[in-house]
From TrEMBL, chain A:
Name of the protein in question: Acyl carrier protein
NCBIfam families: PRK00982.1-1, PRK00982.1-2, PRK00982.1-4
Record PTM: 4'-phosphopantetheine is transferred from CoA to a specific serine of apo-ACP by AcpS. This modification is essential for activity because fatty acids are bound in thioester linkage to the sulfhydryl of the prosthetic group.
Organism the protein comes from: Terrabacter aerolatus
Record GO cellular component, one term: membrane
Modified residues (O-(pantetheine 4'-phosphoryl)serine): 41
GO MF term list: acyl binding; acyl carrier activity
Domain Carrier: from-to ranges: 3-81
Function: Carrier of the growing fatty acid chain in fatty acid biosynthesis.
UniProt keywords, alphabetically: Cytoplasm, Fatty acid biosynthesis, Fatty acid metabolism, Lipid biosynthesis, Lipid metabolism, Phosphopantetheine, Phosphoprotein
From TrEMBL, chain B:
Annotated SMART domains: PKS_KS (SM00825)
Occurrences of domain Ketosynthase family 3 (KS3) (ranges): 6-415
Catalytic activity, EC: 2.3.1.179
PROSITE patterns per the UniProt record, alphabetical: KS3_2 (PS52004)
Pfam families per record: ketoacyl-synt, Ketoacyl-synt_C
Keyword entries, A-Z: Acyltransferase, Fatty acid biosynthesis, Fatty acid metabolism, Lipid biosynthesis, Lipid metabolism, Transferase
Chain's role: Involved in the type II fatty acid elongation cycle. Catalyzes the elongation of a wide range of acyl-ACP by the addition of two carbons from malonyl-ACP to an acyl acceptor. Can efficiently catalyze the conversion of palmitoleoyl-ACP (cis-hexadec-9-enoyl-ACP) to cis-vaccenoyl-ACP (cis-octadec-11-enoyl-ACP), an essential step in the thermal regulation of fatty acid composition.
Reaction(s) this enzyme catalyzes, per UniProt: a fatty acyl-[ACP] + malonyl-[ACP] + H(+) = a 3-oxoacyl-[ACP] + holo-[ACP] + CO2; (9Z)-hexadecenoyl-[ACP] + malonyl-[ACP] + H(+) = 3-oxo-(11Z)-octadecenoyl-[ACP] + holo-[ACP] + CO2
Protein name: 3-oxoacyl-[acyl-carrier-protein] synthase 2
Pathway: Lipid metabolism; fatty acid biosynthesis
Length: 82, 416
């Protein structure tokens, strides 16, 4: 079932919060995972796998490097759901 | 064997999270009150696996009550306990100002991240490799706790892990003494940790008949030296101390609990699990510690014994003490605090070092509980009933730790 971008953002923020302890409000569309949120590659892999489960999508490993910002991830997930 | 006390090593901070309390002070107060930390295990896996032992000395304060959620997620419980104890010890020492390159960490563990290892094995089998947590390896590695403490305190002189089963925690303190004596560090955060109240180690220890099976009365199960002892009670937790060169501690006006004067170590080379019956290896470790602390055997007035409550081990340690101290054995005030704490494996030696330091500092020895009828083969002067006062003036004590593999470690602690 496709979700709105806002729903995906909120769900993603919960995953990021659980893995890193970052406040969900800090997970904004234009934030960079590495530069703004200080998420390392290990945490990113956990976030990706948890996002796959939560949103019912498959995010190939080769795609992960393209997910630079929160918006990249939300857009990818929304596209994969549709 | 020569002493090397020209650079004395002193204790300036204590920390512990144990079956008796969430801090070193809470643990000490429970020891003086004679409380047992053993309790029934309220986990669904106890019935699921039909474990023959249904109790343990589980941690009193869950780490989730103390640590941030992300810390409990990204650290194995063994690292969580170590971090809690290290932060307490560091704060207790007044957060010493020290160059990161002169600050070390030495945290031992007997088993390492067994929870992570087996949880992730379940993930692999049930959900596939992609579901294995990317931090699985750094969480399960036995040096994880030392690394976590080093990262948290910014300790850059070295982060070390001694692994010698139930002597690991004591050995790490010996390692820390050497770091300071040899000039590698001015301050070292040292201790041991264990989080092995897990069905696999329980089943393994039970299979070797090492555990007490007094399921109907956990608080009475750990009974070192008693004729009714039937094995040890598995415990969990961590204990950590802050060690400093005396010069460094004095210069900053730190409170000094005691001097960690020396470590004596030996190996039995006798059997993988059974102690050498005549105690020659363990007695050598004790005598090395005495000598390196610039003491004579008759200067030792107190021993916090390893005494796990196993039928064979308690006698073997007595034989070793008798061999080392001869007639002076009768003058030793001995206690077996595992009667209350249970056996914390790789954290045991560290916890008992903390207790021995508290005993020397407060001049009080906690009583051994559950000693109703002393084994006639063990002619030791064991403190029972009320805790016992130690005399004023210069005093010294030993803390013994022995581990599967034939590892013997004795720490000598002197008043200051």
């Amino acid at each position: 079932m496709a979700q709105s971008e806002q729903e995906i953002l909120e769900g993603l923020a919960e995953i990021v919060n659980e893995e890193t302890g970052l406040d969900t409000a800090s997970v904004e569309m234009d934030k960079s995972f590495t530069e703004d949120l200080d998420i390392d590659s290990l945490s990113m892999m956990t976030i990706v796998v948890n996002a796959e489960e939560k949103f019912g999508v498959r995010i190939p490993d080769s795609e992960v490097k393209n997910l630079k910002t929160v918006r990249d991830a939300v857009t990818f997930i929304a596209g994969a759901q549709s | 064997m020569t002493s090397n006390r020209d650079r004395r090593v002193v204790v300036t901070g204590l920390g512990a999270t144990t079956p008796l309390g969430g801090t070193a002070t809470e643990t000490w107060e429970a020891l003086l009150a004679g409380r047992s930390g053993a309790r029934p295990m309220e986990f669904d896996w106890v019935a699921k696996y039909e474990l023959p032992v249904t109790f343990a000395a589980t941690i009193a304060t869950p780490p989730g009550d103390v640590l941030a959620k992300v810390e409990t997620r990204r650290l194995d419980p063994s690292s969580q306990y170590a971090l809690i104890a290290a932060r307490e010890a560091w704060a207790d020492a007044g957060k010493p100002e020290v160059e990161p390159e002169r600050l070390g960490a030495a945290i031992g563990s007997g088993i390492g991240g067994v929870w992570t290892l087996l949880d992730q094995w379940d993930n692999l089998r049930e959900k596939g490799p992609r579901r294995v947590y990317p931090l699985a390896v750094p969480m399960l590695m036995p040096n994880g706790p030392a690394a976590a403490v080093s990262l948290d305190l910014g300790a850059r002189a070295g982060a070390h892990t001694t692994v010698s089963a139930c002597a690991s925690g004591a050995e790490s303190m010996g390692y820390a003494i050497d770091m300071i004596r040899t000039g590698r560090a001015d301050v070292v955060v040292a201790g041991g940790t264990e989080a092995a109240v897990h069905p696999l180690p329980i089943a393994g220890f039970a299979a070797m008949q090492a555990l007490s099976t007094r399921n109907d009365d956990p608080a009475k199960a750990s009974r070192p030296y008693d004729t009714g002892r039937d094995g040890f009670v598995l415990g969990e937790g961590a204990a950590v101390i802050v060690l400093e060169s005396e010069e460094h501690a004095r210069a900053r006006g730190a409170r000094i609990y005691a001097e960690l004067a020396s470590v004596g170590m030996s190996a039995d080379a006798h059997h993988i699990t059974a102690p050498e019956p005549n105690g020659s290896g363990a007695s050598r470790a004790m005598l090395y510690a005495v000598e390196r602390a610039d003491l004579s055997p008759t200067d030792i007035i107190h021993i916090n014994a390893h005494a796990t409550s196993t039928p064979v081990g308690d006698v073997a340690e007595y034989n070793a003490i008798k061999r080392a101290f001869g007639d002076h054995t009768d003058d030793l005030t001995v206690t077996a605090t595992k009667s209350m704490t249970g056996h914390l494996l790789g954290a045991a030696g560290a916890l008992e070092a903390v207790i021995t330091i508290q005993s020397i500092h407060n001049r009080l020895v906690p009583a051994t509980i559950n000693l109703d009828e002393q084994d006639p083969e063990i002619a030791l002067n064991v403190v029972t009933g009320e805790h016992q006062k130690l005399p004023d003036g210069d005093i010294a004590a030993l803390n013994n730790s022995f581990g599967f593999g034939g590892h013997n470690v004795a720490l000598a602690i002197r008043s200051i």
